[in-house]
Amino acid sequence: MRLSVIIVNYNVRYFLEQALLSVRRAMHGIDGDVWVVDNNSVDDSVRMVREKFPEVRLIVNRDNPGFAIANNQAIRESKGEYVLLLNPDTLVEEDTFRKCLAFMDEHPGAGALGVKLIDGSGKYLPESKRGFPTPWVAFCKTFGLSAIFPKSKVFNRYYLGFLDESETHRIDVLVGAFMFIRRKALDKAGLLDEAFFMYGEDIDLSYRIVKAGYHNYYFPETKIIHYKGESTKKGSLNYVRTFYQAMIIFTRKHFSGRRASLFVLMLQAAIWLRAGITLLRNIWLKLRQPLLDAVAIYIGLVFLKNFWANYYYKDPTWFKTNVLWFNFPLYILIWLGTVWLNGGYDQRYDLRRLVRGLSIGTLILAAVYGFLDLDYRPSRALVLMGAVWAVVSTVGIRVIAHFMEFRNFRIGRDRVKNMVIVGSGEESARVMSLLNQAGVMKNFIGTVLPSPGPAGITPGADANILGDAAQLHEIVRIYRIDELIFCSKDMLAQDILSWMTRLGPSISYKIVPEESLSIIGSSSKDEPGELYTINIRYNIAQPGQRRNKRVFDLLMCLTLLIGLPLWLITSSHRWTLLRNAGAVLLGRKTWVGYAQHAREGALPPLPPGVFSHIDRLKGLKINEKAKERLDFLYAKDWNVWRDLEIITGQLLSISG
Prior knowledge:
There is one protein chain. This protein is α/β, with parallel strands linked by helices. Among the domains are: 3-129 and 165-229, Spore Coat Polysaccharide Biosynthesis Protein SpsA, Chain A (Alpha-Beta Complex), CATH 3.90.550; 418-533, Rossmann fold, CATH 3.40.50; 539-655, no CATH class. 48% of the residues lie in helices and 15% in strands. It has 21 helices and 18 strands. Strands 1, 2, 3, 4, 5, 6, 7, 8 and 9 form a nine-stranded mixed beta sheet that branches. A seven-stranded mixed beta sheet has the order 12-11-10-13-14-15-16, with helices on both faces. Strands 17-18 form a two-stranded parallel ribbon. The longest helix has 55 residues, at 257-311. It is globular and about 90 Å long. It starts with a strand and ends with a helix.
């Protein structure tokens, strides 16, 4: 047997489906087998593989043992002369495997091979070729010198930026997304080190292959798409910790003495540095808009104070200084708090929620104003003028930001993107049906045929037919196309990848796999892939509803605190209730949760519940399957009133 292809999958069903379809085509005429190791996915991946790819050898794990262990499971059972470790979020060209086999046969000293990787926007991925992470190489990568000097042989040995990406080279490290390995080299170097859960195992194996006397090669004569970020989320603190911990494992394994200690110390410092940067970045992304709004409103309030003191009271010193440190911060806190509660910060350019939040905040402020001490009630006119300024300033900030980002003032009316489907008339109609079912709004310009011959239709015979693929460049330019959807049933993967690299990243690309209900793409190597598919919408997963649930939990805690004397007298469960209230306040629990612990990825996550939503069904015998269904319905249809009904019933039963 010539080739064994091994894919480890974890909750990326739609990307796995596309990868397997491309692998099926690439394996045509090759004596080999394909393995999928599923690490306890909950997205129906296993059923999809069994139904759509009966030829695939499937290993189903009941937990998630990690990337290295899962690959080793299949490597031990496979028999191929060559082994390919392939990510599920990839797409290979039809001749990728044949070209790799030919190269490896011609170069008996080659232990492993990697190919040219491009992301979902058609851009070259620099990790296609890498150097060993020596202390100096790691230092340059960690502190950004590699990015500042991308072509330097001194500063960018991590991505080997000084080597031409279009030429074949001997390299140090292959990327785990595509590792084409000679079985004999694998037998001599050993399997993947299972001490690595995720990240680092590809570096370690590449290093051991070289130590075993073989060479690693970068082979750009074929290319694949790698939708980075699908199996892992790289903007998180967990990613930073996991990646650098893997590097520490590698260092302790392959370096010794003072050099190893220095390297580990540097990596530990890098963990704290990168974690700090990531944390600050995430905080800044969440707070930058509210902070900008607060500064703009405060500056306006100061101006209005000075104006009103001179114009109306004829006294520049009329207002006391406490308006600057008490009243204005209070006004801003109430206004921005109600904007946040109304979802005004969930979508940056949603003016309707912004104005509604400010209006509600003004009403609350008017009510609060009357309860303030006379010393803290400077002027109702100042509150009203401040409310008008708050609306004008925050709306103005968003209008300017929208213009800077999109070069138009159509805020709240985002331009529907011009879209073209490249495929047969039949597949084009199927894609449009999928888009309509998924609720995706696009300005469908027309269909581009893969070629004028096979479809039997020429441009002009059908009003929707714009031309054939040979004219795609002109069609994109003339019609100002923003998005291309390629039908893989009608086009070769190598043609799709070729067009993506030729047209460049200014266009968004999607691919619809044959007979699939999903349309897959990605606009950036730094962002996870995108899916247009028919999915369930969970109310409890929406940002506004999650916030409402948290606010409701806090209000219930406040209500319990106000009624504390009554509960101390009437309830025998008072201390348990108080302990639970403390846990809810800290976010460790929620008042109403699932009936049973939901498996990761099965439902939107919730903290453990003080009460369950099925507690109202006491006296009824409910099996596990029914509980799963009730949990699903609770997540899908959640609202505040349902939680209030459940909690009220439970508190009454406790007090009784």
